Amino acid sequence: MGINQEGSTGTTHFGFEEVATHDKAGRVGDVFHSVATRYDVMNDLMSLGAHRLWKRFAVAQSGVHSGDWVLDVAGGTGDLAWLLAARAGVGGRVVLSDINDSMLAEGRRRLLDRGGAGNFSYLQTDAENLAFADDRFHCVTIGFGLRNVTNIDRALAAMYRVLRPGGRVVILEFSKPVLRSLSKLYDAYSFAVIPRIGRFVANDEASYRYLVESIRRHPDQRTLETKMQAVGFERTRYFNLSGGIVAVHVGFKL
Ligand SMILES: C[S@@+](CC[C@H](N)C(=O)[O-])C[C@H]1O[C@@H](n2cnc3c(N)ncnc32)[C@H](O)[C@@H]1O
């Protein structure tokens, strides 16, 4: 018998599949090695460009000021890092981190292409085991990354640990649509259209099927907020975007 993803043994979900807990990170790794070079174009196609607005909204909630130190966890190709760096300025620092070297390499390449150099750092590290000292960052962000980690509670606790007292976490993630009618339409689009776009554009239907399925397995807005509170975050709140297809959760380490 398996236990759910909060446990360290047994089984957990990989999309709609049940897999051994110790296999999930490798399976997720295969997905992102496979999609890395097509990741950005696929994001634009799948979301019809909306992911850019969602990311802007998330960064607007970050409270990042000039001179701040910011960590973007599971930062992938660097969209959030780029927007955060504009706020942190030349006196600040943005660390782009990801467990996956293919995604991190794409992120580094894109940030350098855009002219970002001085105030970015890059580190390959697991969200559940962040390789940073305690109380380091003014802000920690994670965009569309949390649902991919094996143990969400552990990742939340790690993000809490590396935040300075007074610091803020911003979590951007797919969530649960608030209207039933929207939910039905969204399901039809996600399951019928997105894997096909994945097949034609990225030549990888299976990875995009996983991405859609993983959204359905992710905790809803309220459940995620409760998890944040359980690891210590205070003054938590969330904003539904696009009718709850996406949510931005914010919390503080006080
Ligand atoms: C859907 S992408 C999001 C990338 C970027 N944050 C964005 O918003 O476009 C998910 C990212 O999470 C990373 N990831 C998955 N599991 C992780 C883990 N345990 N620790 C850190 N990063 C992880 C993947 O490698 C991938 O780059």
What does this protein structure show overall?
With 254 residues, this protein is an alpha/beta fold. It has a single domain (26-177, 211-252), classed as 3-Layer(aba) Sandwich (Rossmann fold), CATH 3.40.50. Helix content is 45%, strand content 23%. It contains nine helices and nine strands. The strands form two sheets. A seven-stranded mixed sheet has the order 5-4-3-6-7-9-8, sandwiched between helices. A two-stranded antiparallel sheet has the order 1-2. Strand 4, helix 5 (101-113) and strand 5 form a beta-alpha-beta unit. It is globular and about 45 Å long. The chain starts with 10 loop residues before the first strand and ends with a strand. The model is unreliable at 1-7 (pLDDT under 50). Bound molecules: S-adenosylmethionine (SAM). Residues 25, 28, 32, 74-77, 79-80, 98-100, 103, 126-128, 143-145, 148-149 line the site of S-adenosylmethionine.
Low-confidence stretches: 1-7
What's the pLDDT, averaged over the residues? 94
SSE topology string = EEHHHEHEHEEHEHHHEE
CATH class: Alpha Beta
Q: In CATH terms, what is the fold-level topology? A: Rossmann fold
SS-based structural class? Answer: alpha/beta
Cα-atom radius of gyration: 17 Å
Largest sheet: 7 strands, mixed
CATH architecture classification: 3-Layer(aba) Sandwich
> In percent, how helical is the residue content?
40-55%
Domain count: the total is 1
N/C terminus separation: 40 Å
The CATH superfamily is identified as Vaccinia Virus protein VP39
Which overall shape is indicated by the principal axes computed on the Cα atoms? globular
Strand order of the largest sheet: 5-4-3-6-7-9-8
Question: DSSP strand (E) fraction?
Answer: 15-25%
Number of strands: 9
Bound molecules: S-adenosylmethionine
**Structure annotation, total helices:** 9
